[in-house]
């Protein structure tokens, strides 16, 4: 057997002028060379090909020969093959039988109307997505109402489990993140404010930005990344394995069992996490102010209580339930969109995180404008 | 029977996962050009055996000889050359989901030096057509295909380099009876026209009847018996007897005898 890579193929003149002899291995390794040689053959001057010296022929070689034969047939000059063994003939026959006939998929040319249509479809899909999210919010509220009327249907154990998952287990990461944000704010703020001799205002800077915006916003972003993806993955894998359908056939309501405990857990835990983030952020800022600017903890406390209205805490935490609803609804909705293949699970999980973070930031912007308008 | 070339030779194979021994002292010969069907109850390690031969699972003991090369001790280059001479079709095709069917079939061909990309793409089209798929299926992604089409596309990829041996893992599982018998015929036809040796793992009695030249039964951690369908009917072992004499086996057998031309070609 010839070693792969060391195969030779050559074409030589036969006994008569209208015959060529192929020699060596005509395989996928030599087919590029063979095709180039075959393309040079002229139907007018060639009538026979002798294959008796071909040592190996595979489907790639057979393809090149059949292709050549077809070209000759089109020119009304059939090509005769000589020296074929039974095996070679059977291979050539099989390849000739299954020779693909290229067909083009119908493709309409690019047009302005098409482009417009594409944009329209995207806008429509976006609107439908918002509608679907609103629908899920409606389902959640309806099931909450139902749970109030029929408390026995409510899964309290599940709620506790999810509170532990989304809330308690997120405390370390949220606290550390907020602490570091406080440190960064104090450090950056002090560098800038020192130029005006207004170092002491760093307390106001930290307090307002952490309490009002950063504490809850960054907590929500972390929770969106952690929890929205977990919701989508959990619900999505159940959807993928038809567990959701099984629930329905058993008379169980997936919304009541899967959505309500998850979204409710977020609704309960996110304000608490936000509060923890606020405390950790102030602690980090205070520590850095003490180290870097020499503002003692007592002075920090005094300045904090005197200079910062408690409104800021209220403005920050009032956003938490809204963010919780957004994260929970987006996560559950994405989970229910998973189809029966694994790729869609991965795609929907990353979609859920991106959508949840984006929606949280948009909602935060809306809140900012709202509070600025009413003057809090 | 005249002496035939042994293309796969297994000797004393032992496979175990933890303390659970799947194969013990297992011997098996596969001859060139035949279609060997491997059957066995669930958990007897049919797929493990296939994976062992294809080099995906290293046995705890024993030797695996494929095309005269010891798979277990061969160096990297020899193994590479050997891998080009066999193709594996996994249960659900195992197509790369980010590539179209044509690109999937082209993947093994990319290893060939100096192969013109245009020719490569046309050869992929030929393989796609050989396994009975439409030309336009080549542009589709695996997720857009039905289960039967994915299996066919998986077979096309396994055949990309004209291997001497193809391993098929449950080729007809999950197909409807029409699709399954079409696939049986496809395997038989390709094996005949391309001179393939086929090692197939199956549960499907119809496939055994319609395609296999020889059957190997896995039981009690080894290859219990090998032989033709007729030989199998005479085996006394309770599991083998149950398998080939059960109600499903009788149905498949009566169907098989109604179409005697099927086995003759």
List the helices and strands and how they pair.
The complex is a heterodimer of chains A (376) and B (265).
Chain A: E1 9-13, E2 19-26, H1 31-39, E3 48-57, H2 59-74, E4 80-82, H3 86-98, H4 112-149, H5 156-166, H6 171-194, H7 202-240, H8 243-249, H9 254-293, H10 297-307, H11 311-336, H12 342-374
Parallel strand pairs in A: 2-3, 3-4
Antiparallel strand pairs in A: 1-2
Chain B: E1 6-17, E2 20-31, E3 35-40, H1 46-53, E4 61-66, E5 69-70, H2 76-83, E6 86-89, H3 101-109, H4 117-130, H5 147-158, E7 165-169, H6 177-194, E8 197-201, H7 205-211, E9 214-219, E10 222-227, H8 229-234, H9 238-245, H10 247-258, H11 261-264
Membrane topology (chain A): Multi-pass membrane protein
InterPro entries (chain A): ABC_MlaE_roteobac, MlaB-like_STAS, Permease_MalE, STAS_dom, STAS_dom_sf
Protein name (chain A): ABC transporter permease
Could you name the key traits of this structure?
heterodimer, A: about 375 residues, alpha/beta, Transcription Regulator spoIIAA, 2 domains, 4-stranded mixed sheet, 12 helices, 4 strands, about 70% helix, about 5% strand, disordered N terminus, B: about 260 residues, 6-stranded mixed sheet, 4-stranded antiparallel sheet, disordered C terminus
Account of the protein in words:
Chain A has twelve helices and four strands; from the N terminus they run ββαβαβαααααααααα. Chain A is an alpha/beta fold and 376 residues long. In chain A, strands 1-2-3-4 form a four-stranded mixed sheet, covered by helices on one side. The N terminus of chain A is likely disordered. The relative contact order of chain B is 0.15. Chain B is built from eleven helices and ten strands. In chain B, a hairpin with a 2-residue loop joins strand 4 and strand 5. Chain B starts with 5 loop residues before the first strand and ends with a helix. Chain B has a domain of 70 residues. Chain B is α/β, with parallel strands linked by helices and 265 residues long. In chain B, the strands form two sheets. In chain B, strands 6-7-8-3-9-10 form a six-stranded mixed sheet, sandwiched between helices. A four-stranded antiparallel sheet of chain B has the order 2-1-4-5, covered by helices on one side. In chain B, helix 3 packs parallel to helix 5, helix 4 crosses helix 5 and helix 6 runs parallel beside helix 7. Chain A: It is a multi-pass membrane protein. Chain A: This is ABC transporter permease.
């Amino acid at each position: 057997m010839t070693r792969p890579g060391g195969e030779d193929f050559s074409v030589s003149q036969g006994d008569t002028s209208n015959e060529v002899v192929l020699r060596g291995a005509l395989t996928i390794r030599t087919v590029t060379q063979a095709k180039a040689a075959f393309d040079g053959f002229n139907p007018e001057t060639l009538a026979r090909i002798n294959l008796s010296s071909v040592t190996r022929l595979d489907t790639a070689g057979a393809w090149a020969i059949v292709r050549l034969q077809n070209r000759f047939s089109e020119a009304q000059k059939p090509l005769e093959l000589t020296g074929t063994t039974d095996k070679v003939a059977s291979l050539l026959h099989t390849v000739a039988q299954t020779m693909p006939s290229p067909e083009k998929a119908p493709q309409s040319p690019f047009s302005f109307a098409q482009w417009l249509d594409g944009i329209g479809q995207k806008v429509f899909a976006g609107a439908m997505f918002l509608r679907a999210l609103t629908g899920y919010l409606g389902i959640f509220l309806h099931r909450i109402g139902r749970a109030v009327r029929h408390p026995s249907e409510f899964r309290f154990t599940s709620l506790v489990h999810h509170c532990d998952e989304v809330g308690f287990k997120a405390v370390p990461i949220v606290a550390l993140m907020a602490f570091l944000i406080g440190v960064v704010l104090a450090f950056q703020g002090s560098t800038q404010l020192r130029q005006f001799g207004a170092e002491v205002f760093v307390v106001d800077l930290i307090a307002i930005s952490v309490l009002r915006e950063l504490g809850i916003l960054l907590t929500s972003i972390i929770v969106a990344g952690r929890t929205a993806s977990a919701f989508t993955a959990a619900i999505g894998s159940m959807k993928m394995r038809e567990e959701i359908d099984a629930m329905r056939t058993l008379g169980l309501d997936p919304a009541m069992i899967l959505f309500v405990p998850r979204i409710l857990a977020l609704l309960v835990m996110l304000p608490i996490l936000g509060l923890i983030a606020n405390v950790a952020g102030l602690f980090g800022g205070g520590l850095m102010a003490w180290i870097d600017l020499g503002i003692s903890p007592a002075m920090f406390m005094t300045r904090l209580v005197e200079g910062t209205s408690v409104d800021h805490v209220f403005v920050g935490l009032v956003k938490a339930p809204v963010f919780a609803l957004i994260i929970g609804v987006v996560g559950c909705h994405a989970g229910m969109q998973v189809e029966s293949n694994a790729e869609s699970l991965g795609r929907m999980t990353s979609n859920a995180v991106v959508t949840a973070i984006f929606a949280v930031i948009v909602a935060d912007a809306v809140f900012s404008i709202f509070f600025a308008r009413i003057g809090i | 029977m005249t002496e035939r070339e042994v293309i796969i030779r297994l000797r004393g194979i032992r496979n175990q996962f933890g303390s659970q021994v799947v194969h013990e002292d297992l011997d098996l010969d596969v001859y060139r050009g035949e279609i060997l069907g491997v059957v066995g109850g669930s958990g007897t390690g049919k797929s493990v055996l296939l994976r062992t031969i294809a080099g995906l699972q290293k046995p705890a003991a024993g030797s695996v000889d494929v095309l005269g090369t010891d798979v277990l001790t061969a160096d990297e280059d020899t193994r590479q050359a050997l891998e080009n001479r066999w193709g594996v079709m996994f249960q659900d095709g195992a197509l790369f989901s980010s590539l179209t069917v044509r690109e999937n079939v082209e993947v093994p061909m990319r290893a060939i030096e100096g192969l013109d990309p245009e020719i490569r793409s046309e050869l992929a089209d030929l393989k796609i057509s050989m396994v009975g798929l439409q030309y336009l299926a080549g542009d589709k992604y695996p997720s857009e295909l039905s289960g039967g089409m994915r299996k066919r596309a998986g077979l096309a990829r396994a055949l990309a380099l004209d291997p001497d041996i193809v391993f098929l893992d449950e080729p007809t599982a999950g197909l409807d009876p029409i699709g399954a018998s079409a696939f049986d015929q496809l395997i038989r036809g390709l094996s005949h026209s391309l001179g393939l040796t086929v090692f197939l793992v199956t549960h499907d009695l119809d496939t055994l009847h319609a395609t296999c030249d020889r059957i190997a039964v896995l039981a009690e951690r080894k290859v219990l018996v090998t032989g033709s369908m007729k030989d199998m009917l005479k085996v006394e072992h309770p599991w083998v007897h149950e398998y080939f004499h059960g109600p499903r086996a009788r149905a498949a057998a009566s169907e098989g005898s109604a179409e005697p031309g099927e086995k003759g070609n």
